[in-house]
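ok so for the tutorial part 2 we go from a plain amino acid sequence to predicted C-alpha cells. step 1 is just haveing the sequence, like this:
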Amino acid sequence: MRWTIKAKPETQKLKTLKDALQVDDITATLLLQRGIETFDEAKAFFRPDLNDLHNPYLMKDMDKAVTRIEEAFANNENILVYGDYDVDGTTSVALMSLYLKTRSDLVATYIPDRYDEGYGVSFKGIDFASDNDFTLIVALDCGIKAIDKVAYAKEKGIDFIICDHHRPGDIIPEAIAVLDPKRSDCEYPYKELCGCGVGFKLIQALAEREGKTIKDLVGYLDLVATAIGADIVPITGENRILAFYGLRVINGFPRPGIKALLNQVNKKNELTITDVVFTVAPRINAAGRMKHGNYAVTLLAEEDEALATKYAEEINAYNEDRRETDRRITEEALEQIKNNKEEDRITSVVYHESWHKGVIGIVASRLTETYYRPTLVFTKSGDKLAASARSVVGFDVYNALEACSEHIEQFGGHKYAAGLTLKEENYEAFKQAFEDEVTKTIDKSLLVPEIKIDAQININDITPKFYRILKQFAPFGPSNMTPVFMTKNLMDTGWGKRVGADQTHLRVTVKQSDSNPIVGIGFGLGDKKDIISSQAPFDAVYSVDENEWQGNVSLQLKLRDIK
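step 2 — the prediction. this is what the C-alpha cells look like for a chain of 563 residues:
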C-alpha cells in the first residue's frame, strides 16, 4: 500500500481562507484541496442551494427537446421512455416516466434485455416502438453512439431525444435533440452529470415551461441521488446539490420503492451516499443482472406501499442469487489466473463461456481487489464474447481499449469502467494486444494501491467540534472523498486484538504521548496485529467516524492501514 500525502496548500491562500472563515488550519487545508478558495465558494459548498443549479436551457438542444415533447403532448402521441438496465438507466426511466405521466397518459417504458439485446438502444426496442405506434422515444443513459439505430427509427417514422452522459464518438446521432454535456459543442457549465442527472435537467426545463420551479421537483431527487452514487460520478457542483437534497428525500420521505428496499436491509440510521451505493444500488442492479431491468423500474415507479414491498422482496431475492453467483465466478476466475500462471502479468483477462453475463462487471471489480491491475472478464453472449472492463486509479482503460480496437466489434464506457464485444476467434489476439498496450502505457506505480492522505494531524485535534465540521463535508464521493488523516508515533494501550468471526479485523485503543486514548477499528487489518503488539510506536492512516454502542456515542478511528 502506497501512502501519499497531498501537497500542502500555499501559505498565503491558507491564511486568507482561515481568516475569511474563522476556521483552523486543518479545515482550511481540506477545503483548499477540494478547490474551495473563497468565502462564497465555501458557503456554496457547506450550504448547497437548489437555486445554484444551472439553467437547463444552457444545454445544447434543450429547447429542441422541450419543443418536441410539448408537441407530442399536444398531438396525443405515444411516448416511449427508453433506458439502460443499470441503476443510472432504471432510475432515469422511472424519473422521466413519472414526470411525463403527470402530463400525458400515453407514456410507456422500455428497458432492453441484457442478454437478448445488450447495452443501449436496440433494433428490437425500435421495432417494439414501431409495432405499438410510438412516434417519440426519449432515451436515457444511452444513445450517444446509436447512429444506425436512430437512422433506423427515422425510417419507421419515430423521432429520438437522447439524454446521455457518455463520451460521444466523432459523429452525433441525427436525433431531434441530443442532450449530453460531454458534447464538444455543448457549453453547459457542468460536465459531470450522470444519465439520470441529464434526464432531470430535461424535466427541469419542461417544468419551467409549465410555470413550475425547482422546489416542485424535489420529490424526484431521491432517484437522482441514487444514480449519482451508483454511477460514481464526481460529487462536485450540481451533483453535490442534487445528491444533498436527494439524500434528504431518501431520509425524510422516500418513494415507496426505495423505502421498501431499505426495509429489506433494516436500515434505520440516516443514510449516506455510501449506504445508497452499498444497499440500494446493488439491489436495483440485481434486477437487470439476474432477471430484467423492468423489475427495477416497476419498483421505483410504484406508489402503492404494499405492492412496493412485494416487488422489493423479489428484487432482494435476485440480489441474493447475484451474490452467490459472483462469489462462485470470482473463485473460478482466480483459479484460472493461477492455472494459466498469469499472476505476474500487468493485466487480468479471463474468459469462460458459462459465466453469468449479469455479474462479470462485479467479478472484474473483485479481481482488481486481489490483483490490482486493469481487468477484463469475458463470457459468451450469443455468437460473440462480451466483457466488462475495470481499471485502477489513474489509468484510462477506455483509451487502452481504443488502441486495441482492431480486435474489437464494439466498445463504450468511461475511464475506469467499460464494456466490449468481440468475435471468439479474436479473443487470444485481443488478450495479448491489451496486455502489450497496458504494459507500454501504464505508470508501474499505479499497480500498487494508493491511500491518499489529506493531512497529518494529532490525536488531540480530533474533538467533537472537529467531527461536526467534517460531517458537513458530506455527501462524499469522487472529487470529495471522506477526509483521510495520518498520525505518527501512536502507542497501543494494551488492548489491541483481532476481532470478527474469522479474526480478520483489528481493534485497538491508541494514544499519542499526551493525548487521551481513542479506539480504532481496522476492517481486514487483523494481520497487522504484530505491528502494534511489538510495543514500538507506529503510524496509522484513518478516517474519523462515530461508534454507537449500547446508547453511547463516541468518536473512533476507522483505520485504513498501519505501518
